[in-house]
């Protein structure tokens, strides 16, 4: 009898957990007094999916990690090329990378970072000049 009561709870856990992970949150990014709206990838599910399967991108995406690391990114099932900004725990842009669309080629930061910002390639002009700039995020 008690086992039967457990089944609805397990069903709810597995069914509702992905729904919670699909809720879209946004942050505002401030770089040199320029403000950008970013979709927040702050759960394992959102980080693993990223911008895959999206037909277009209206905003960038911010990936957050609980501790500094050197995460790898690739663009399989992403329909547009991307620029990556690697941001350290000190909120300073450490480097940038680029990837073409729909590729398994991977990019990694040169050092441990805590945040990754993705933009459609070309959305940020002179992106290489942002290295060393401080960023600020505000949850919307």
Which bin fits the share of residues in helices? 10-25%
N-end to C-end Cα span: 46 Å
Query: What kind of assembly state do the chains in view correspond to?
Result: single chain
Number of helical segments with 4 or more residues: 2
CATH fold-level assignment: Jelly Rolls
Query: Per DSSP, what share of the residues sits in E-state strands of 2 or more residues?
Result: 35-45%
| Main sheet summary | 7 strands, mixed
Concise account of the structure shown:
The protein is an alpha+beta fold and 140 residues long. The protein has helices spanning 2-22, 44-49; strands spanning 26-31, 34-41, 60-69, 73-74, 82-87, 93-99, 106-107, 113-120, 135-139.
Tell me what the structure shows.
The protein is of the alpha+beta class. The protein has a single domain, classed as Jelly Rolls, CATH 2.60.120. The strands form 2 sheets. Strands 6-5-8-3-2-1-9 form a 7-stranded mixed beta sheet. A two-stranded antiparallel sheet has the order 4-7.
Features:
single chain, 140 residues, alpha+beta, Jelly Rolls, 7-stranded mixed β-sheet, disordered N terminus
Please write out the topology.
Blueprint: H1 2-22, E1 26-31, E2 34-41, H2 44-49, E3 60-69, E4 73-74, E5 82-87, E6 93-99, E7 106-107, E8 113-120, E9 135-139
């Amino acid at each position: 009898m008690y086992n039967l009561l457990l089944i609805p709870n397990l069903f709810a856990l597995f069914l509702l957990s992905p729904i919670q992970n699909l809720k879209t949150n946004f942050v505002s990014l401030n770089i040199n007094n320029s403000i950008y709206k970013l979709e927040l990838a702050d759960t394992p599910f959102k980080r693993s999916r990223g911008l895959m399967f999206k037909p277009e991108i209206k905003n960038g995406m911010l990936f957050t990690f609980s501790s500094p690391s050197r995460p790898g990114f690739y663009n399989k099932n992403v329909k547009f090329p991307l620029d990556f900004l690697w941001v350290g725990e000190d909120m300073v842009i450490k480097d940038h990378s680029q990837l073409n669309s729909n590729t398994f080629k991977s990019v990694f930061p040169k050092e441990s970072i805590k945040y990754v910002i993705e933009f459609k390639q070309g959305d940020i002009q002179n992106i290489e000049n942002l290295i060393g700039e401080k960023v600020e995020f505000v949850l919307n």
